[in-house]
Specification:
74% helix; mainly alpha; 4 helices
Length: 73
């Protein structure tokens, strides 16, 4: 089973029924899904950049490392 796309989620009859029961509009739910996807993509990009070792000659390497440690806590 693969992950559903946002379009598939918004068209799914069961999800639409739950949205009606919870009185959630299609626009609000679509916005929520898009924002969540954007946050997930941003977190994935942070993970990719964290996997690349910092250049010791780069002046911001220490501050970047400190930020990453703070976010991990």
């Amino acid at each position: 089973m693969s992950d559903m796309t946002i379009s598939e989620i918004l068209c799914d009859p069961l999800i639409r029924q739950l949205m009606r029961a919870d009185r959630v509009s299609l626009d609000v739910f679509a916005t929520l899904l898009r924002e969540a996807a954007a946050r997930a993509d941003a977190q994935a990009m942070k993970g990719i950049s964290a996997a690349v070792p910092p250049d010791d000659n780069e002046p911001s390497a220490q501050s970047h490392e400190t930020i990453m440690q703070t976010e991990a806590v």
